[in-house]
Amino acid sequence: DAFVELYGPSMRPLFDFSWLSLKTLLSLALVGACITLGAYLGHK
Questions:
Q1: Domain total in the chain
Q2: How far lies 42's CA from each of 14, 17, 30, 31, 33, in Å?
Q3: What is the pTM for the complete model shown?
Q4: Mind spelling out the 3-state secondary structure of 1-44?
Q5: Per-residue exposure over 9-32, b if at least 16 CB sit within 10 Å of its own CB, e if not
Q6: Centroid of chain to Cα 8
Q7: SS3 of 30, please?
Q8: Residues 6+ apart with CB under 8 A from 21
Q9: pLDDT tens, N- to C-terminus, the chain (44 residues)
Q10: Non-local CB neighbours of 16 within 8 Å, separated by 6+ positions
């Protein structure tokens, strides 16, 4: 129980932040891929 009380509340914001940054990175990668693909097809 002490382990949960110690790490439960403190790890939660860290997890939320990492998940948010992960989603941001994924969306940026997706946009970058679309732009690259569009430029590639455009030059072709």
A1: 1
A2: 42, 37, 18, 16, 14
A3: 0.57
A4: CHHHHHHHHHHHHHHHHHHHHHHHHHHHHHHHHHHHHHHHHHHC
A5: eeeeeeeeeeeeeeeeeeeeeeee
A6: 22
A7: helix
A8: none
A9: 555 566 666 667 777 788 889 999 999 999 999 999 999 999 88
A10: none
List Cα–Cα distances, 11 to 18, 22, 32, in angstroms: 11, 16, 31
Domain residue limits at 7: 1-44
Name the phi and psi angles at 25, rounded to 5. -65, -40
Q: Which pair of tokens denotes residue 5?
A: 């009380």
Length of the chain counted residue by residue? 44
